[in-house]
Amino acid sequence: DLSTLLYTSKCLKEKKRPDTTYFFNKRYQLLLNSILNTGNGKSYETAFKVIYIWDEYVIKGTLGFLGGKDRLGGSKNHGVYCVWDTPKGEIYFEEIYYLDEKK
Fold first, then answer.
1. DSSP letters of 3-57?
2. Per-block mean pLDDT, blocks of 10 residues, the chain (103 long)
């Protein structure tokens, strides 16, 4: 998952140990970019789509949306969303693991 890749990559860097497989940092960047390309996070319709709630935390920090409050939102048409409300603004995440598979 995104947070495991991020922290493993950071630990290797801090310990000055090379990621000889280029797995951790490269995979982290690819996964982060994939999530960020799912939307812009500014509304229900353009929410970032995440599978794990932990991925939300990484994205909130990466985009500088710290010091806020979570609230759940959504509708029958949009599924379940987490809205992160900060002084900087709101950021929307679609919790795709809650989607009804009958759709």
1. HHHHHHHHHHHHTT---TT--HHHHHHHHHHHHHTT--SSSSTTPEEESSHHHHH
2. 80 83 80 92 90 85 86 69 88 74 50
